[in-house]
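Changelog note: in this version the structure field was regenerated for every chain. One regenerated record is shown below for reference.
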Amino acid sequence: KNTQLTKDAPLPYKHCKDFESRLAMGDKIEFTVDDTNAGTFSVAELPPHDAVLLLVIYRHDTLSTAVSFEPHVYANLLNAQIAIIDTYKGSAKARLSIDDHPDSKSSRSEELRFDSVVAVNEGRYRAVLSSEGGEEIASAPIVCLNKESYVILRVGVESQSGKSYPQELVVYPMSDPYYLSGAFSSKALSAVSSLLLAIFIAIQLT
């Protein structure tokens, strides 16, 4: 049975959306751009527990419009967890750190490795992308709630064919700091049953 996940509207560049669609082994997710097939992702295996699958589609290189997929299945943890994914294509080098929020009483900063997952304490933070020389390129706020799953992406492309897009940081989901008291339960990216799906578009083919 075929199901169109984005029947309301297509997902634009740098956007993410949750889909409560139960996935099974062998299922295929097809992506199209302007009615042209862009790529197909196949579910090769399933985790032994209820989980959320984050699926990122992005440019494979700077020359063509071919795509790559970056999947990640979140673990069931008490702490907030952040997947750090680098989809940028180009020659520029950069570092990523997570800093205490400017309004915080402390001023800690910790470097994050791309293509890794970290568990963090509940709180308000700031993700900072910097050049190798230490100059800030981009930043984004992030509110982390316990038991929630987040992603920080470095996006952009230094295209050799077509339009280029600058380095930027995208954080998803944007949790409400109101829930930091711990007395509430946020629903952002929380798994209910089976393997649910969150798709992130980190590609612009034109």
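Spot check on this record: The longest strand covers residues 51-59. Confidence is low (pLDDT under 50) at residues 183-195.
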